[in-house]
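Table S2 (text version). Query chain:
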Amino acid sequence: MRIIDFFDRGCSFFPDRPFLMDEHVTLSHREVQDMSHRIVNGLIDGGLTPGKSVVGVLSPNNPRAFQCVMGALRSFLWLPLNARNSVADHIAILSDQGCECLFYHSDFAHEVNQIRRETPGIKQFICVDQDGGKDLFLDSWAAQYSTISPYLPRQPQDVSVIWPTGGTTGRSKGVLTTHLNWETMISSFFAAMPYSEPPVHLVAAPMTHAAGVVIFALMGIGVTNVFMSRADPLKIAANIQKHRITTIFLPPTAIYSLLAAPGIRDFDYSSLKYFIYAAAPMSAEKLKLAIEVFGPVMAQTFGQAESPMICCYLSPTDHNVSGDPEKERHLSSCGRPSMFTQVEIMDDNGNILAPEAKGEIVVRGNLVSLGYNNNPEATEEIRRFGWHHTRDVGFKDRDGYVYIVDRKNDMIISGGFNLYPNEIEQVIWSHPEVQDCAVIGVPDEKWGEAVKAVIELKPGSRVQETELLAFCRERLGGLKCPKSVEIWSELPRSPVGKVLKKDIRQKFWAGRTRNI
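Corresponding structure-token output:
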């Protein structure tokens, strides 16, 4: 099935049920379906090619913007854009992935002016929420087109979404996910988390990440998606109670904020069926507290953009450890392999390892994407020995639970976002007083990992940590800016002069059972 076929299935059963809503607008399944057809017809009229052209959506969580996602999925290739990225990141992604149309929220109108100048390949700019600017306005533009668009047959291995991911040089790679990948993800989701009635999903995390994937998983059974523009803890709690939310995804850092919010226990969470967390390891102690507050509904998934969301699954039943030490150990795992994906531990020579032996976590099956767009070298690197290499280091126990203990590369996961040190280091190196630096992730109660810069100054230089932080913040924005800086007299180096990040990390991670 095409990914849009799952939405059309849900629409055929529940045409009048709300599909997308927030405090300002409610859009039924039928209204979104009609708009998706209008968008397809409008884009064809604007010169885009069904099945080939790339359509970007740049917006915070917003129902009107997600209508455009559905239009892109019906006949084109959707390119998600993280609203928290810098404008330079957006321009690089849009250019590298060949975007031809950009739907955007008015919050990004100023950025779009720069994008327009530097991304000449984009043929159309369409604002999703406001009229009166220089660009087309979604509602008035779409109104002139029919609610029936040409049917586009697609093959299972045809690409449906190009999912941007960070690169070790700061340049994004586009993950080519197919209709078969999404069909497998949806099948795995329902094998793990069945429903007996249409769910109500709170979209509090970014719709361009796992929260959007949850929409895909649930849209075949008439889901209602309640959007929040930002993940305010008490508003999340209030919305769960008000809308009788059954399903929510949040990264661990947001769950920690929820648990710390005053009055968080005063709300009714009895409607919750699955409280999904992923994107970073979660404290076992915080997990126990979450179960105490929200009930026996916690569910963990493990996946990547290259193998979406559910390679492994830790069910609500798995979270019921009841003081059993062996079961309690499972709270530190990311679960067992999902129904349709093989997950193993591999050494550097391609050998599958025995239980408890540490190696790289590798996956195989129809969940795994085609690779990276226009980047065969990077694709070949992560597909050695016939498996997808996650770059996560871990082990399996004798019951099949998978544990992540480290990473093979320097990537930092902070608040559920993948950050790559090289881009941050490039900025720090440009400071006139800096001799050398190393950017690492360090333990953080809120973010899981926080970005730290360890800096060696030029001989005789005098500069304060606060000045270096301000320098970074101006050039990187809040997401990538280091949370802290330390100035060392000298960075540890190998005999050939390479900075030893492993030695630097050891200072901050010593005494912990896992290094992420």
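Notes on Table S2: The CA atoms of residues 35 and 147 lie 7 Å apart. The chain has 17 helices and 26 strands.
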